[in-house]
Design goal:
5-stranded antiparallel sheet, 6 helices, 6-stranded antiparallel sheet, RNA-binding, RNA-binding (RRM/RBD/RNP motifs) family protein, globular, alpha+beta, about 20% helix, Alpha-Beta Plaits, RBD_domain_sf
Length: about 230
């Protein structure tokens, strides 16, 4: 595994123990910065110029050094490894020095780290802020035409989700239920609305129930909906 030694190809991390902040389920490891502040926080950067990407599918023994190696040639400012329930989730956020480098980073999508391929997504500002618990007012977030649903019953169907949104006149084709490689539902889905304005209006359904479970809604990106759609066909 990359980065399993004390020094690797010029990258030093001192003690190889992962630095974790259990008071916050998300912990930051950096390339020299001791206090992380997300780019654009209070600075008004737009999603297209936000120099951050999100990684998914990382090996569970992944370190910050492995991520530096994965993006060799790009200037990384900080890495945040996502920790859920005390364990690394296989996701991370990577902050680059310049927005264009985040664009280059997207070209590494589905390249391998060890035996696993890693998915690389654009990251909207609120995605990072939500994960770091620095921003909670969903009315102030930036919207696209896509919403992510989390907390769905595993038995939920597309028709259930269409019915959940009622007056928004969705069709089954606009609902993409996320599934694991074995075909089982993850409890998440992506829904495409007619516009970003419609998606924002649909947030009135946030924390309402389907069956016995309440469903959380979040702004998302069209490429995540496309990925969910593609995986559901496999």
């Amino acid at each position: 595994m990359l980065g399993s030694g004390g020094v690797s190809d010029g990258y030093e991390v001192g003690s190889k123990r992962q630095r974790m902040m259990e008071s916050n389920p998300y912990f930051a490891v950096g390339s020299g910065s001791s206090s992380f502040r997300p780019y654009g926080y209070g600075g008004g950067l737009q999603p297209s110029t936000f120099p951050v990407v999100r990684l998914r599918g990382l090996p569970f023994d992944c370190t910050d050094i492995d991520i530096f190696k994965f993006f060799t040639g790009l200037d990384i400012v900080d890495v945040l490894l996502v920790n859920k329930n005390g364990r690394f989730s296989g996701e991370a956020f990577v902050v680059f020095a310049f927005p264009m480098q985040a664009e280059y980073a997207l070209q590494r999508d589905r390249q391998n780290m060890g035996r696993r391929y890693v998915e690389v997504f654009r990251c909207m500002k609120q995605g990072l802020l939500q994960c770091c618990s620095w921003f909670s007012d969903k009315d102030q977030l930036e919207y696209t035409e896509v919403l992510k649903l989390r907390g769905l019953p595993f038995s939920a169907t597309k028709s259930d989700i269409v019915e959940f949104f009622g007056a928004f006149n969705l069709t089954d084709e606009k609902v993409h239920i996320a599934r694991r490689p074995d075909g089982k539902a993850t409890g998440e889905a992506y829904v495409e609305f007619a516009s970003a304005e419609e998606a924002k209006k649909a947030m009135v359904k946030d924390k309402m129930t389907i069956g016995s479970r309440y469903v959380e809604l979040f702004p998302s990106m069209p490429d995540e909906a496309r990925r969910a759609k593609s995986r559901s066909r496999q």
